[in-house]
Design a protein that fits this description.
The structure is a single chain. The protein has 419 residues and is an alpha/beta fold. The protein has two domains: 185 residues, 3-Layer(aba) Sandwich (D-Maltodextrin-Binding Protein, domain 2); 206 residues, D-Maltodextrin-Binding Protein, domain 2. The chain is built from 19 helices and eleven strands. Strands 1, 2, 3, 6, 7, 8, 9, 10 and 11 form a nine-stranded mixed sheet that branches. A two-stranded antiparallel ribbon has the order 4-5. Helix 2 links the parallel strand 1 and strand 2. The longest helix has 20 residues. The chain is globular. This is ABC transporter substrate-binding protein. Keywords: Signal, Transport.
């Protein structure tokens, strides 16, 4: 009798747990991305959807490590995580490999216009959409507004103006530790992003109308020659720039050792913190263009998107959580807590965003002259193409090859890869 009661109690508990648990949806996202607000989002969503439980798989903060973890899971045919947070350059690769569920039925064409257009472009592969933009970032030109004012300059619209201003300021300041320009030119993805901003600013495009890779065009070669000249001709960038990561550049700028800098927008809260010696001396603007090309989009965009694992057993429930995280209110809250800016355009019209994040609209204007890397077109080959470009760009920056030879070699290798 006592044994029957015990088993009866066990069954009640088990059925109770099943009833309470409902469907479990796992999301893979790094705490570095929106971790500061993730628990709040999960609690709010579960309160609105008591039949869905969200499990948070905390993947590594380094994108390359995240990528490796996802690739391992996908190759193994895992149905978890149901939702993955993707760097802007991954959807094309993952979709081309058959790892993502197309979202057309959940995310129809008419809703795409609610988001920043270039972010939607990055989410597409061969006409289908595989991701919803979660947040956006991009490269900006940071500058010492106190030094520009001191010498009577307005912020430069063109690279030619930047060279003129930086050269004059460095000469007048007579500080051997002051550089005219710094950025992230180490052999990393950021180097390819930097090259593209110069290439686009010359009116260049990665592919021509027939789909051929044309980085070795006149515009491409001139863009790379300009990078070389920034080091050796204009003497504005240190030779050590070829080793710099974004943080290396940020630290130098924050120490007051550079007039201009191009990196991502994560640096703004750090540069303007109360303990920063440049806090009241720094401002930012869109990345410049070259003379004669004022209509080019030069801001290389980054950001993260949410997609659904093709093997997920709970695609409908996964979509509900994606829909929640990318809603107006959730994106507003994410921006306020983490500083990661919205991809939904209506949020920039919300006065609460301006109150909580005063520079948001200024960054948004920069995003409107943004461009995305060719990851959607290259699919699973993008990472290898980027590595080829990084290697050949560096060979020119180290003066091992001329810019023409480096880019000819890059095109030859990329063509062989794409055959």
């Amino acid at each position: 009798m006592a044994l029957r009661k015990f088993f009866g109690l066990v069954l009640v508990v088990l059925f109770g747990v099943v009833a309470l648990s409902g469907v479990s949806v796992e999301i893979g996202i790094s705490p570095r991305e929106i971790g500061a607000v993730m628990d709040e989002h999960i609690s709010n969503f579960e309160a609105q959807n008591p039949d869905i439980q969200i499990e948070w798989l905390k993947v590594p903060g380094v994108p390359g490590q995240q990528h490796s973890q996802y690739v391992t899971l996908f190759f193994g045919g895992s149905d978890k995580p149901d939702i993955i947070a993707m760097d802007i350059i991954w959807p094309g690769e993952f979709a081309s490999r058959g790892w993502l569920a197309p979202l057309n039925e959940y995310f129809p064409e008419e809703e795409h216009a609610e988001f920043i257009e270039n972010m939607i472009d990055a989410a597409k592969y061969e006409g289908d959409v595989y991701g919803v933009p979660l947040y956006i970032n991009g490269l900006h030109l940071y500058y010492r507004k106190d030094l520009l004012k001191k010498y009577g300059f307005t912020p430069p619209n063109t690279w030619e103006e930047l060279v003129e201003q930086a050269s004059y300021i460095v000469e007048q300041e007579k500080d051997p530790n002051l550089y005219g320009y710094i950025s992230m030119w180490g052999k990393i993805e950021g180097l390819f992003m930097n090259y593209l901003q110069f290439f686009w600013g010359k009116g260049g495009e990665f592919f021509d109308e027939e789909g051929n890779v044309v980085v070795n065009s006149k515009e491409g070669v001139e863009a790379l020659q300009f990078m070389v000249d920034m080091i050796y001709e204009y003497n504005l960038a240190p030779e050590s720039i070829v080793t710099y990561t974004p943080d290396d550049a940020r630290i130098l700028f924050q120490q007051g050792r550079a007039v201009f800098m191009v990196v991502q927008d994560f640096v703004w809260p750090i540069l303007t913190a109360s303990d920063s010696i440049v806090a009241d001396k720094v401002d930012f603007m869109r990345v410049p263009y070259f003379e004669g090309y004022p209509d080019t989009n030069t801001v290389c965009l980054g950001g993260w998107l949410l997609g659904i694992n093709i093997n997920s057993q709970h695609k409908e429930e996964a979509w509900k959580f994606i829909e929640y995280l990318t809603s107006h209110e959730a994106q507003l809250r994410t921006a306020a807590v983490t500083g990661n800016l919205p991809t939904r355009q209506s949020v920039y019209e919300d006065s609460r965003l301006v109150e909580q994040f005063p520079v948001a609209n200024k960054q948004y204007k920069d995003f409107m002259v943004g461009n995305v890397r060719p990851s959607a077109q290259l699919g699973e080959k993008y990472t290898q193409v980027s590595e080829i470009m990084q290697r050949e760009i560096q060979s020119a920056l180290l003066r091992l090859k001329t810019p023409q030879r480096a880019l000819d070699d890059a095109v030859s290798q990329i063509n062989a890869l794409l055959r």
